[in-house]
Design goal:
Largest sheet: 2 strands, parallel
Number of domains: 1
Order of helices and strands: HHHHHHHHHEHHHHEEHHEH
Structural class: mainly alpha
Number of helices: 16
Strand order of the largest sheet: 1-4
Distance between the termini: 63 Å
Oligomer: single chain
Shape: globular
Strand content: under 5%
Radius of gyration: 20 Å
Length: 337
């Protein structure tokens, strides 16, 4: 394995980490439109919190997919063909969620406005759930032949571990969204989001215990990398407890940062367990390795130069956009007063 191959494996992990940190609260806000907000005025406020950001946050996913295609074409080909139906459903969920914000704002009847509000919430939940299901099913090991082709059955993708993983990621995103609401709103919405967080964190901790048990039973993470796996899982629990403490003591920033780091910990856990593989096969001889899946050294060298030239500009823009819209939004009752 060359240094460029290692760098690009790390960069793809960073891109997915950024996606889940930023898009995670977007998914949570989307779910909150119907599952949390009580009336139209509150739903307007909830959607307004991510109005300037949600489409920019999705760029992290597009960039991660593009980087995978350019740096590890064999990984891209195996993953995207083997998980074609799952990724297609994710795309449908993201499309419905994306257009729901625009269509809802232009609907003249309550019936269609309600339809697009439900499209936002269900699309956000399905996208988060399917991402969690895909990644957790992937790390169990999938049937791969010597050419890198996946020939899985229904239970390859849908099983107890993948379902628990999907639910866990969905719940993490929902709580992350509630923590973002606490940062961006004041008054009744913020207080209710804090109350819900206090209730949901014990449920999340119980889910994490179940996830760890199934991770131990269905993957080789604890056999091949026991120390790093346990270290990351302990960090995940610590971040979850820190976020819960933030909810209990009204430290909004602490809760938001900690819940985001919890999502990043899940990504780190997956990439740590994958390394030095990019796809885990049920027959270990057919697992796809980083050193065999990458593009040519020249391609990786050129991509590295371009990435580290453009990346600072992109990061400056993201920081600036969040700084411009950092102020809290008043809850509907406060706005009327």
């Amino acid at each position: 394995m060359t240094s460029y191959q290692f760098i690009w494996f790390l960069l793809i992990g960073v891109l997915f980490s950024g996606f889940f940190f930023l898009e995670g609260f977007d998914f949570g806000i989307g779910m909150s439109v119907r599952f949390f907000a009580k009336n139209r005025a509150e739903r307007d406020t909830v959607i307004q919190t991510i109005g300037p950001h949600w489409d920019g946050n999705e760029v992290w996913l597009i960039t991660a997919g593009g980087a995978m295609f350019a740096s590890f074409p064999m990984w891209y080909a195996s993953l995207f063909s083997g998980y074609y139906i799952v990724l297609f459903l994710i795309l449908v969920a993201l499309i419905f969620r994306g257009v729901s914000f625009e269509f809802r704002a232009n609907m003249q009847t309550d019936t269609w406005r309600n339809f697009w509000e439900w499209a936002s919430s269900i699309g956000s939940f399905c996208a988060a759930f399917l991402f969690g299901m895909m990644f957790t099913s992937m790390i169990q090991g999938v049937p791969i032949d010597k050419n890198g082709d996946i020939f899985g059955s229904f239970t390859t993708y849908v099983n107890w571990f993948s379902i628990v993983g999907g639910v866990a990621v969905s719940l993490l995103c929902f709580i992350h969204g509630l923590n973002f609401l606490r940062l961006k709103t004041s008054g009744e919405l913020r207080e209710r989001a804090e109350k819900w967080s206090k209730i949901l964190y014990p449920v999340l901790l119980a889910g994490e215990v179940v996830f760890v048990i199934l991770l131990y039973l269905t993957t080789d993470f604890f056999t091949l990398k026991p120390m790093s796996t346990w270290g990351i899982l302990i960090a995940l629990v610590i971040f979850t407890l820190a976020a819960w403490w933030g909810a209990q003591s009204s430290h909004d920033w602490a809760s938001f940062i900690a819940s985001g780091l919890s999502l990043i910990s899940v990504v780190v856990l997956i990439f740590n367990g994958l390394f030095p593989r990019v796809m885990i096969a049920t027959n270990s001889a057919n697992s796809i390795l980083i050193k065999n899946a990458s593009s040519s050294p020249y391609t990786l060298h050129l991509m590295t130069i371009l990435t580290f030239t453009i990346l600072p500009i992109v990061l400056i823009y993201f920081i600036w956009s969040y700084w411009v819209f950092y102020k809290r939004i008043k809850s509907p009752k406060q706005a009327i007063e």
